[in-house]
Write a structure and sequence with these properties.
It contains three helices and eight strands, in the order βαβαβββαβββ. The protein has 150 residues and is of the alpha/beta class. The protein has a four-stranded mixed β-sheet with strand order 1-4-3-2, covered by helices on one side. It has a four-stranded mixed β-sheet with strand order 5-8-7-6, with helices on one face. β3 and β4 form a beta hairpin. The longest helix is centred in the first third of the chain and has 11 residues, at 13-23. The two termini are 27 Å apart. The relative contact order is 0.18.
Length: 150
């Protein structure tokens, strides 16, 4: 078995695309609207789904953004509630990406943090919040250098 993609259910496709493509730099691979089968797959007969597949520049990770209508009541993933998850990206300049995302009007749990213990001690970490409140962790290992590790 191998990983195919990870999906996030989003409330506004365009807003989420701006965050992940324009902000974080993922590449858009494909977009589509589901067929009649989707109601059975989702267990919601009246659902209509639009989706978009994104990938990291090296193609090692693919993210599907899915928007289902009618929308259901959302949980608050920013609080790391059970049943929610977060995405994590590495080998980037955390402070530079954080500054760009703040300039674009996105939120974060905190400013970048310099861990003093664990595997990233001496590097940088931050949790950004996507438009639906999903945590997106940015990891800059202590030995990361632009152009060398990226």
């Amino acid at each position: 078995m191998r990983h195919h993609h990870t999906a996030l259910h989003v409330s506004d496709m365009e807003r989420s695309e701006r965050f992940y493509v324009d902000g974080l730099g993922l590449e858009r691979l494909d977009a589509w609207t589901s067929g009649a089968y989707i109601g059975k797959l989702y267990g919601r007969a009246d659902v209509k789904v639009t989706a978009m597949l994104l990938a990291t520049s090296d193609g090692s990770f693919r993210l599907e953004l899915a928007h289902a209508e009618p929308l259901l009541t959302a949980v608050d993933p920013s609080q790391a509630q059970p049943g929610t998850a977060h995405l994590a990206f590495t080998d980037i300049d955390v402070r530079e990406v954080y500054a760009r995302m703040m300039a674009l009007g996105y939120g974060a749990i905190s400013e970048p943090v310099a861990p003093t213990s664990g595997p990233i001690a001496g590097g940088w970490l931050v949790y950004l919040l996507d438009p639906d409140g999903n945590r997106v962790e940015l990891i800059q290992p202590p030995d990361w250098r632009p152009g060398i590790n990226s």
